[in-house]
Amino acid sequence: MRAIEITQPGKPEVLRPCERPLPELKAGEVLIRVHAAGINRPDVLQRMGHYPVPPGASDLPGLEVAGEIVDGELGDSGFKKGDMVCALVQGGGYAEYCAAPLAQCLPVPAGLSAVEAASLPETFFTVWTNVFDRAGLSDGETLLVQGGTSGIGVTAIQLATARGHRVFATAGNDEKCRACEELGAERGINYRTEDFVAVVKELTAGKGVDVVLDMVAGDYVAREIDCLADDGRIALIALLGGAKANVDLGQVLRRRLSISGSTLRPRPVAFKGAIAQKLREQVWPLFAQGKIKPVIYKTFPLEQAAEAHALMESSTHVGKIVLQVV
């Protein structure tokens, strides 16, 4: 099969087309003929040598795919061979065929293309488990999304808005701020020209937000503590701004604040399967209702994975970048 491999740690050009044997299925897995694969920041980190592959996972990059089930034991899952699905995987997505745990497969929502469906699993699994499960965003609460035009950002904005929450989002220029607002954010905040702490305090009459979805970390954490409401929570999912933070723990104690962190890739199939079930029940119907939609910035042929990574690193995109395989 055609695939894209990381020849050595480095810049986008280390991604090269190659030929690989078809994946060998493990118990509980299905073989998907990949039509499209999403590009994500962890793929970039893996390419650079900063995100180790979990034991037993494919060394090929790619954490989400959409395509046709062509092999595997389907049991009483309700799926059959030939069905179009999208799936969260531990690796191997940049290829013509990919092995995926059956529990992590979801039907392609009605009316969506394979390219659109391939943009969903990584961000929706991540947002659901961090914003709603771990941080417990509940009725009447507010959310601040750092990096509102990233794949994670556009998902978090839409999903929280569709579920009735006030959402604020940061972005790097005024055009991106307007894009956040078009997706449902009440206010896009230009982090280059505005103080997001001051803006959030003004918008919430001094109370602050209940939950922050943070992929920046570093010196943002102290500022996020300042803009949290009492009993507020920070859900930390990436370290783009650095792994060290100097925070006022007195505030954490006095105001009952919580900071949680998580990475999804190494979690067991049972954990991710439970998320898939919640998404199917509580989120997938929102596509049919027109309350949420995929946001695709650009697609590339599989062989142009290096160009896709270069675009990802430029941070000029709004939404997802997807590789088209078929």
- How far is the N terminus from the C terminus? 12 Å
Q: Strand fraction band? A: 25-35%
Low-confidence stretches: none
Structural class, from secondary structure content?
Answer: alpha/beta
Helix content class: 25-40%
Cα Rg: 19 Å
Mean pLDDT: 97
Q: What characterizes the major β-sheet?
A: 7 strands, mixed
Shape: globular
Number of helices: 10
Order of helices and strands: EEEHEEEEHHEHEHEHEHEHEHEHE
Tell me what the structure shows.
It is a single chain. The protein is an alpha/beta fold and 326 residues long. It contains 10 helices and 15 strands. Strands 3, 4, 5, 6, 7, 14 and 15 form a 7-stranded mixed sheet that branches. The longest helix is centred in the C-terminal third of the chain and has 20 residues. The model has no long low-confidence stretch (mean pLDDT 97).
Keywords:
alpha/beta; 326 residues; seven-stranded mixed sheet; 15 strands; six-stranded parallel sheet; 10 helices
In short:
The chain has 326 residues and is α/β, with parallel strands linked by helices.
Write the layout of secondary structure elements.
Elements: E1 2-6, E2 15-19, E3 29-39, H1 41-48, E4 64-72, E5 84-88, E6 97-101, E7 105-107, H2 114-118, H3 121-134, E8 142-145, H4 151-162, E9 166-171, H5 174-182, E10 187-190, H6 196-203, E11 209-214, H7 220-226, E12 228-236, H8 249-254, E13 258-261, H9 269-288, E14 296-301, H10 305-314, E15 320-324
Parallel strand pairs: 8-9, 8-11, 9-10, 11-12, 12-13, 14-15
Antiparallel strand pairs: 1-2, 3-4, 3-6, 3-15, 4-5, 5-7
Helix pairs in contact: 3-4, 3-9
